[in-house]
């Protein structure tokens, strides 16, 4: 029997994808479960990635005219009573603050005291509290539009959690805008889903499909929800960002009313849009391999790590001097409009161990430099997206660094797109649909399925089949041509066509 | 009787300082009270100032070797039971989460359901939850030091709140570090209070005194608390940042234990340090005047606002073209290492109203440009720190912008330092102490007092006098020479000397 190749992550993706995901997070030192149920600790390497995501997104939000602001963490319970559909969607599982003090209990411990007159809940999303504030700010059409974003923590009491993908507390941004007309609000909703798609594709190297959600999958209270959907390596879909056109639903519940130019009092039109630390989970599952995390260069906290190699202190002096000058030269290069981010790792550690440390963390480029390389004025380069390392002259490496990183970023995108295209099918009948979404081994399901493009006539009719197979309608792609076909379940004529997939 | 000068803010500082503070916040559009008790909404102009503060501080933290990470919002109640002194200081007034669900109540409203087995509290500060995590991370001296910072929201159930200065929820950063030796931890504590002083003086233009807190004023559980103290314009002190040497108190409570190089198991040495949105309150009270907010140029979201002036559309085209080219030219200038931040305000609004809008918001430089200025290739400049405006040639203005902003930043600092020096006294007896801290009009206290440098022999002996006068010991200044004097209260010989003041 041929010996299996050694991998840094065990199990591999094909052996046990969910467990592989957890092991990549651990090996890359991204996060860990906290002692508080369902909440995670985001460790420095994971958090610096999130900081890079935040910075890029924040620049894009500001370039599209938005400002940041901050609204309260706690929401009075009565606010949630106002918008029935929204409560149904969010209020069920949330953290409820009922007391404002701790006092000693008779057993030497503590107990809650100071009961609040009205319970407060930790925001699961901020439409209600922000809407109540906007109602005070908006008087006239001259006060519109309001274009505000908030970076914040939110909390949803999820029963089953998975790091980055679904946690009780998570970090996100939520944009909340108010407009004088339906048309403007719709344009805003589309503008922001486009910003998300731009970020996903050009920063995360993650191809996405923009589409609209069917009624059952919409944000509670929204007229329309647009989303970006990506295919993970296990062929499941991940909703990576949403942008909601809320119509006048929230403005009516919260009385966001303005005097129009014609003097009439009108309810405003609102939107909301958000992405979260879930994007880190998406990034992990899009690019990582059986050796660990793979970072797209544009988001990598460290783009190049230099590993000095030497036998003794006299060699060390020479090598360190050389790598310091190399670092300086490299940091003067730019990639994607910023200085290249370089780290020298001179920790006292075995060479192999040190190399794998950075492989598992996903650093795009490793550069080894020892006395022999210095003699030849060359460096030994390992690319995280390729198995083989190669020698290259120092000057060629320095001048081509922008090109190499650009090529890596593109190759990650291409590889992810290829995976998606290879696993996207057109399905026209129930049998094929069942086959596509049923693993051969139910006990330990193998990677299977993908995106199925199907005509369908009614969401309700599909309900039981989708529940049975654990499949959802991901979206009606925006760019699809108007076509007529037959429903894969009923054979009825229809023009509705959507992407079906299992999803995170 | 001479007519009082018109001011944009009513009341003035001398008429009613606390109310003036609220009115400046309102006029500058910085924040407002939210519908949630004790919590504020930070509006875009106020938040962009906080973003600039964050960016500068974050760069300083990273330059001193720290990384950011994120820890849970909620802390199990049992964690607070471990460190007795800390609970005493923080657990008393905090938001307690007792349920994780809302369910319909019989009256058509909602009510808490799903009672938690163990109550959770919203972090008032994170020593306990972060310490519990560090206990898992630290095994050996090789794992040390841990140098981590967190940007987060925290909550303390304050009874009397005031925007930015004391709110139930506030934004802050909290550094939490772990070291192998006492010496290293003490150095870290000092390093970070120096970073805060550097930021306060060189970014906020706010002179501060670095000192150590007396035992009664220390952070609950700390061995030593260092702080920076600033004098506000009403001569009260404001503690603007603190850095705590926690010794082994927290590591013992949370079992942060490591194997030392000699093989022995030892408790680690920890520190914590933080500044908050309180700094915005400090900034307002340090520089603002009776016309509103005054921003130090280095932190101003907009450093220059250009106000185009024209009578009709044909003039408008010419003026707008001119100011756009002026903006471009100015944005190529740098000030304090960054591009100059410029805004053109072409809103349809009366000229006077528009000018005062920016005065009240504290924009450092206003530039008016109309057809006559364009003819002369000149601009009309108003500096926020001076009453008079002046004409200047365009080219001279552009080339001197760095010089002007630098001068403004310095002049704000100098003015604040002068105020502090003028209102700092040496006091050697009780009568002078009482006089200094007693307003002439008790019903509506005038601005009075300041910083009193006094020898004292025992904090306990002073307790009732300080309570009576509402005075506190601010700090024992770090740079004070070792001196001997007599206690202002008892006449006893002593070497202890501190700054006494009323404080926020
Ligand atoms: Zn709703
Ligand atoms: Zn304590």
UniProtKB/TrEMBL annotation, chains A, B:
Give the principal location in a single coarse category.
cytoplasm
Gene3D superfamilies the UniProt entry points to? Anticodon-binding domain, Bira Bifunctional Protein, Domain 2, C-terminal domain of ProRS
**Any single Pfam family the record assigns to this protein:** HGTP_anticodon
Q: Which GO terms describe its biological process?
A: prolyl-tRNA aminoacylation
Q: Which residues form the Aminoacyl-transfer RNA synthetases class-II family profile domain?
A: 46-296
Q: Which InterPro entries match?
A: aa-tRNA-synt_IIb, aa-tRNA-synth_II, aa-tRNA-synth_II/BPL/LPL, Anticodon-bd, Anticodon-bd_dom_sf, Pro-tRNA-ligase_IIa_arc-type, Pro-tRNA_ligase_II_C, Pro-tRNA_synth_II
Q: What class of enzyme is it?
A: ligase
Q: Does the keyword Aminoacyl-tRNA synthetase apply?
A: yes
Q: Which PROSITE patterns match?
A: AA_TRNA_LIGASE_II
Cellular compartments annotated:
Cytoplasm
The record's annotation in SMART domains points to: ProRS-C_1
Q: Which GO terms describe its cellular component?
A: aminoacyl-tRNA synthetase multienzyme complex; cytoplasm
- What are its E.C. numbers? 6.1.1.15
* Catalyses which reaction(s): tRNA(Pro) + L-proline + ATP = L-prolyl-tRNA(Pro) + AMP + diphosphate
Molecular function (GO) terms listed? ATP binding; proline-tRNA ligase activity
Q: What keywords are assigned to this protein? A: Aminoacyl-tRNA synthetase, ATP-binding, Cytoplasm, Ligase, Nucleotide-binding, Protein biosynthesis
Task: Relay the domain remarks.
Answer: Consists of three domains: the N-terminal catalytic domain, the anticodon-binding domain and the C-terminal extension.
Q: How does it assemble?
A: Homodimer.
Give the family per the record.
Belongs to the class-II aminoacyl-tRNA synthetase family. ProS type 3 subfamily.
Q: What does this protein do?
A: Catalyzes the attachment of proline to tRNA(Pro) in a two-step reaction: proline is first activated by ATP to form Pro-AMP and then transferred to the acceptor end of tRNA(Pro).
Could you identify this protein by its name? Proline--tRNA ligase
Organism of provenance? Novipirellula aureliae
Task: Supply the gene name.
Answer: proS
């Amino acid at each position: 029997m041929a010996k299996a190749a050694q991998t840094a992550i065990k199990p591999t993706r094909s052996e046990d994808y969910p467990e592989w995901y957890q092991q990549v997070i651990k090996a890359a030192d991204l996060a860990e479960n906290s002692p508080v149920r369902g909440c995670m600790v985001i460790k420095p390497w994971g958090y610096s990635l999130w900081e890079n995501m935040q910075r890029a997104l924040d620049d894009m939000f500001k370039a599209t005219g938005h400002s940041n602001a901050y609204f309260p963490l706690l929401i009075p319970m009565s606010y949630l009573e106002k918008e029935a559909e929204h409560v149904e969607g969010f209020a069920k599982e949330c953290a409820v603050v009922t007391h404002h003090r701790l006092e000693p209990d008779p057993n030497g411990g503590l107990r809650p005291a100071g009961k609040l007159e009205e319970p407060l809940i930790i925001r699961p999303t901020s439409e209600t509290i922000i809407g109540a504030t906007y109602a005070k700010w908006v008087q006239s059409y001259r006060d519109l539009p309001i274009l505000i974003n908030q970076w914040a923590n939110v909390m949803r009491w999820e029963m089953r959690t998975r790091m980055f993908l679904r946690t009780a507390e998570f970090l996100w941004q939520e944009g909340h805008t108010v407009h004088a007309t339906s048309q403007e609000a719709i344009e805003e909703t589309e503008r922001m889903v486009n910003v998300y798609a731009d970020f996903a594709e050009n920063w995360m190297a993650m191809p996405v499909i923009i589409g609209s959600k069917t009624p059952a999958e919409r944000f509670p209270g929204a007229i329309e929800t647009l989303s970006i959907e990506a295919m993970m390596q296990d062929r499941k879909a991940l909703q990576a960002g949403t942008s909601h056109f809320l119509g006048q639903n929230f403005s009516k519940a919260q009385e966001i009313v303005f005097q129009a130019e014609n003097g009439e009092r009108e309810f405003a039109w609102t939107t909301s849009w958000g992405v979260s630390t879930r994007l880190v989970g998406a990034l992990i599952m899009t690019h990582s391999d059986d050796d660990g995390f793979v970072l797209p260069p544009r988001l990598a906290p460290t783009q190049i790590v230099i590993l000095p190699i030497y036998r003794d202190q006299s060699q060390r002096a020479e090598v360190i001097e050389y790598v310091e000058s190399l670092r300086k030269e490299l940091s003067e290069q730019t990639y994607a409009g910023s200085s290249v981010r370089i780290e020298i790792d001179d920790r006292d550690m075995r060479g192999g161990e040190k190399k794998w440390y950075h492989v598992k963390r996903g650093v795009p480029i490793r550069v080894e430099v020892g006395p022999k390389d210095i003699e030849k004025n060359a460096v030994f380069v390992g690319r995280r997206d390729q198995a083989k390392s190669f020698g290259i002259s120092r000057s060629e490496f320095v001048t081509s660094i922008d090109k190499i990183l650009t090529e890596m970023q593109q190759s990650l995108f291409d590889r992810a797109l290829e995976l998606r295209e290879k696993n996207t099918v057109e399905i026209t009948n129930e049998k094929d649909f069942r086959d596509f979404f049923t693993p051969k081994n139910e006990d330990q399901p193998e990677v299977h399925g993908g995106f199925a493009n199907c005509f369908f006539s009614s969401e309700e009719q599909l309900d039981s089949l989708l529940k049975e197979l654990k499949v959802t309608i991901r979206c009606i792609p925006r760019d699809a041509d108007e076509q007529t076909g037959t429903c894969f379940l009923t054979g009825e004529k229809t023009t509705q066509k959507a992407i079906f997939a299992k999803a995170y």
